[in-house]
Design a protein that fits this description.
The protein is mostly beta strands and about 550 residues long. Strand 31 (about 440-445) and strand 32 form a beta hairpin.
Length: about 550
Amino acid sequence: MKKITLTLFTALTSLVSLSQVTTIVEVPNPNTSPGTTGLRAPNGTLSHQVMRGQYFISQSDLAAVSPTITSFGFSLANGVNTAASGTLTVYLQHTPATSYTAGTTWSTAGMTTIYTGSYSIPVGTTPVNVDLPLGSAFNYTGGALNIAYEYTAGVVSSSVAIYNAFAGTALGATGSSTSTAITPTLSGTGFRPVFRFGTPNTITNDISVDYVDVSGFVPANTFSNQSIKALISNKSNTVLTNVAVGYSLTGLSTGSGSVVVTSIAPGASTLLTLGSYSFPLTANGLNNISVGVLPDQNSSNNIATATTSINCNTWGSGPSVISFSNSVGFNTGSGIIFSKFNVPNTATLTAAKVAISSGASNTGNTVYAVLANATGSTIATSNTVVLTAGMNGTYQSFTFAPQTINSGMDYHVGLAQTANTVGYFPIASFSTTNLPANLYATASLTNNAATVLTTNLGFLGIQAQFAGSCTVTAIGENATLNNNIVAFPNPAVNGKVTIANLEGSNTITVYNMLGSVISTQTSSNSSVLVDLSNQAAGNYFVKITDSDSNSKTVKVINQ
């Protein structure tokens, strides 16, 4: 399980962002393994007066780069507190290698200088990107690249600039910072800054549906309907007009609709409200929403989908059917991470439900839930819980004295992590390429203000529970998080998919998107074959329930 350390200042990063004539490609893709670093790029301090780094960039990371690279840059989570600047030189080199092979001594032999000039480290605590135009374009001929850079400070600051980073596999090396001009020895690392390469954008017609913005869990006791929103972006190099965006709704509710965007500038994004839908308050189940645009030059980003679980009393922003794979926390530090919510009708909040990650270091640490207002000021705190090994990989409820939640107002609910000498990351998360903005925020334990979390750390397992009796549990809700269970191949091949890594006796139930049971079987085997060959193509949900009534639901595609 990947561990992600939270800071109070973090930045939103995306794989590809577009302006009118330039495509900015960020490598490696920061959304797949997000992190931050103050040591592997110019941080502006005296101890970092000379900095040299050298890394490998894989061919797959460069897939979106055109034959010409015209700019280079960094993505920062926050800058320095006073002006800091120096000279930066950046080098590139084509390589047939499939991993880092440049050794442990920083060297630019055989490399091409793509930038040499001044580099002013941004001042401030907000996220910022820095893109430096190249004096002459670098001709990228495909394959992998080696990159090296050297920074020599002229003006230094007392604070450290923090860069967005990729915290994945060891494909690079970095030189330690130094206050002298001595070439440092490089050490292997997979933790490296996110690089930004600018390339000419030649696409004239590309609208993407970035995400569908709906809550994954909606309580029928509190909500009677939900708006359907979607973020679309113009990834072309020209203004596009009369862009049709449509949606379809299947499952517990059905419907369809469309809107026309009269004009959208190149590189611009817009969050559309496509409509809303009501659901029967007497039934729980799943709604599947699909949003799409007409075919264009890039068909891979024309459709986005989301699934909402209509249930009795649980609200959550994350998808209703997911398998958590990452963990988020403040390491040895302390803080609160919040999920923002807003209810259409006045309701009574009774508890927070938090997915505890599978990290062994959680054991023995103290956590509690916090309810805060729109600005982050504490309204109530829950019971204090000392995490045990048995809580790892499960949802835990944190009880509040009943709290009145007023309609139409923003609130925050989240988990408070206390400091410890051994780092831990208690909240389970689910990685996703695109994430709706402003879902989460962080605060100190004396939280006078919430800071919007703009780094994409994925969907977090934080839910709000409201008062109200329940007679049916939505099939999408995971009682526990067993990350070892897998479904493969997925999509199914010839309608066949295997559910593997089972333990003990399990009941395997298959549902269609309407929530109807397709098949059910009980088995004590470690793997079970699910046969969808006689079912229509589409999405299905397979719910695995063990003998203790713990369950996990996985989504399976039948082609």
